[in-house]
Amino acid sequence: METGGKMSAPFMGFSHTEETKAKMSISHTGKSHTGETKAKISSSHPKSQKVIVRDVKTGKTENYNTVRSLCKSLALSSGSVSKYLQNKSTKPFKGRYEISVVD
User: Fold this and answer.
1) Which of 67, 75, 96, 102 could form a disulfide bond with 50, CB atoms 3.0-4.6 angstroms apart?
2) Can you list the domains of the chain with their CATH numbers?
């Protein structure tokens, strides 16, 4: 069995024709991944972290597959949440959310 480098060598420098590019573009138009597939792709990323969030005010607890999905859902900055998790802070994030990483 050949390695990936040897197998791709014949295609080095190869460019698709404009006609072929147009055909590929048309064939992919209107196609998108389902929400379930997007979640699988996202959670399979090697750096993705599953997190649990507890809202101190309401007592509600939710699980998220990624920090990014958490931030999107709660309208938070992903950089701030990542730093919060890296620093292993014990006080609630923004005075409201207790966020912890699931091992």
Assistant:
1) 102
2) 48-101 (1.10.10)
